[in-house]
Amino acid sequence: MTAAALASYLLTGLAGASSLFLVAAGLSLIFGVTRIVNFAHGSFFMLGLYLAATLVEAFGRTPLGFWGGVLLASAAVGVFGTIVEILILRRLYGAPELLQLLATFAVVLIVKDAALWLWGPEDVLGPRAPGLRGAVVIFGRAVPEYDLLLIALGPAVLGALWLLLARTRFGRLVRAATEDREMASALGVDQARLFTLVFALGSALAGLGGALQLPREPASLGLDLAIVADAFVVVVVGGLGSLPGAFLAALLIAELKALCIGLGVSKLTLVIEFLVMAIVLAIRPHGLLGRPEAAPRASAVDADGAGSTPPLAWILLGAACLLPLVLGGYPLVLAIDVLILALFAASLRWLVGPAGLVSFGHAAFFGLGAYAAGIATVKLGWPMAASLALAPVAAGIGAIAFSLVAVRLSGVYLAMLSLAFAQIVWSLAFQWDALTGGSNGLVGVWPSADVSGKPAYYLLTLAVVALAWLALRRFERGRLGHAIRAVRDSPLRAEAVGLDVSGLRRAALLVSGALAGLAGGLFAFSKGSLSPETLSIPRSVDGLVMVLLGGLASPFGPILGAGLFTWLQDEAARRVDFWRALVGLVILALVFFVPRGLAGFFGTHRR
Amino acid sequence: MTLLSAAGLTKAYGGVRAVDGVDLAVDAGQMVAMIGPNGAGKSTCFGMIGGQIRPDAGRVQLDGVDITAYLPKARARLGLGRTFQVAQVFTSMSVGENLAVATRGAALPLLLDRVGLAGAADRPAAALAYADIKRLELALALATGPRLLLMDEPTAGMAPAERRSLMTLIAGLARDDGLAVLFTEHDIDVVFGHANRILVLDRGKLIAAGAPAAIRADARVRAVYLGHGDGSC
């Protein structure tokens, strides 16, 4: 590559960095002040892009129409963000992180279906910017004028935000709240108003980032999660709450991505983000310019469901064995789904509850297991038993890889990192055609002949899931399980009595990942085919909803949650077009009205 | 016999030297108090000895082994136990489960009896009164069989009678088991009633060290610390 070509790729990278920064800046501001990680931030971006496309079309493709449309779209998203803050988030500032994250994810689901309803499933293509349609030849290559504008805009917005924070009363309040929330409230700052304003500003920035992408990419329904994963990486690498950090990280990541494309290794762009994040966090756990997090908020303390396995469990198991006698066809297929999801949810409950590690990307391990089993069967011709055994191993290896970066983090950092990890694993499944079949997925993952009938496969699944569940329960109540819970309760004390905090967190992740992988393996053979959907972010969230539905406190919660969730989703998908939005509403209802879960409701655990 | 020694301990936060070249030593069987006004650098000093804070300069030795670069868990295994200013216990577990995590099969009833929690093994930690949480934390610190005990404000938040009984208990551990104890304390009565030696810190620097009587007579100490009032600060 010549120096000129290199320079032109770097220019492209700069333009990418600007749009990345706009999204990340809003996320970082909101987190800094409210301590809420806003999953809906990518949705705000997506909304900005859709709105801009519609508005510019309505205003006419003149410079005034274009820029008017872009700014109005940004403002509209700001207003929408304000509404979300007032209606939903304001009630959750004191709630556990998991509930906050789930609530913002509910917004993601609702916005997605709203966009589907308003704009339809097809991508919406925007016009190019009037007056900036041309290209300028720099270093012998054509660089779009619009890119040059974006390159200038990133630093300009950073400068404007800096002025706002440094010179205005609002800015001083924002900085005070970011640095010391209690102090700020003690000084008589009207928190509610400040939070709303910051949320409005942050949302408007995300909307602006989206609207400005109008000439560069079409509006599509998948943008929300793709963008929020990118923004998470930028914010974590830059340091949560630090705007200059976010700018620096956006620059670093966008340039490295541009370089990968320039060098002809575009596949590498998928993992480069994760590599950057891994290296930065290994050296600076709080990001490039971030500062150590205050002590993590106490997690929801729960009982461990000690005591022997109640007779009810054995009765249920007996009944479950007899189920194929009365159920057949579709209901039995659903029953298999419930069992598999119960194991998935149980592995997640163990991680989020007793181990205290919030994961928003648990589907990555489920998918690693499913794909490992699928690839071993289809591509390597392994027998089913061997493929199924490979599933937890592959997912366990994935969990260890993830833990290398993750064990030093906690709370929201970990949640964001897990989402980014899942997004990367998803991209691999989506784009590595030769191995995973890409977007078409894998077909022909059939179980061996002796369990190919639904009743037989059901019984196999029941046996595997019951054993795994019992093993997890034993582990949780054993010496290692207690040590892991001790690390959750007080990392300081755990270290001071000589426990290996990082090692125990790694063990917790390994156990959880391997069991999720086992569930994934069972899933692969139950469906016969796999697609990247298997490990998409919504599946991670499904898992969390099941856990929340059942309640964190009881090991029986996941079983109850998986059953209820599968039934609800099946009913909703059959009766309602916009079932995603419905799931979003159900999540909000859970978060507001039954935050301790249904198992807590029925009192199947002590305390 | 010197069990803990630190030399030239220094830590700065953004240009402010929280701890500046502190030297100290604690012998086995000795109770040493570290006192000083708020912000003198006591907790930072403790953090550097306990391994929670990495010093900018200086060395820490435990029984002749240089532990400056050791993580807290490695220090624990070498015989360093500690309690924190805000008591740290495993709140989701019972008292017995707490100790089972910390010990490797040591005699549980004996430990509970020692700290005055006999018969409380099955009580949930979350249901304990704060004084009992402090006792549980002490039991957790003792469960690993330490030779040196670091106690950051061991009696904070306790009623006077409870303070005396806890400190008597700790003094007994030092005397009978040869445990070395280094503690910070705001309550001057507790300090002068129990310490064999006192270290006085002011603005990050060690300004005096010696027996209680000598410290009481030290003009500089009276000026910067005791002179503030009646000694209850």
With helices defined by DSSP (H or I, 4 residues minimum), what is the helix count of chain B?
Answer: 9
Shape of chain B: globular
String of helices and strands of chain B: EEEHEEHEHHHEHEHEEHH
Q: What would you call the quaternary organization?
A: heterodimer
Order of helices and strands of chain A: HHHHEEHHHHHHHHHHHHHEHHHHEHHHH
Please tally the β strands of chain B and state the result. Answer: 10
Summarize the amount of helix of chain A as a percent range.
over 70%
* Residue share in β-strands of chain A: under 5%
**What's the main sheet of chain B like?**
6 strands, mixed
**DSSP helical segment count of chain A:** 25
What's the arrangement of strands in the largest beta sheet of chain A? 1-2
Q: What is the overall pLDDT average of chain A?
A: 83
If you compute it from the alpha carbons, what radius of gyration of chain B comes out, rounded to the nearest whole angstrom? 17 Å
Strand order of the largest sheet of chain B: 6-7-8-3-9-10
User: Based on helices, strands and strand pairing, what is the structural class of chain A?
Assistant: mainly alpha
Number of domains of chain A: 2
Supply Rg of chain A.
Answer: 24 Å
Can you describe this structure?
The complex is a heterodimer of chains A (607) and B (233). Helices cover 72% and strands 2% of the residues of chain A. Chain A has 607 residues and is an all-alpha fold. Chain A folds into 2 domains: 19-228, no CATH class; 330-546, no CATH class. Chain B is of the alpha/beta class. Chain B is built from 9 helices and 10 strands. In chain B, strand 7, helix 6 (160-177) and strand 8 (180-184) form a beta-alpha-beta unit. Chains A and B meet through helix 19 and helix 20 of A and helix 2, helix 3 and helix 5 of B.
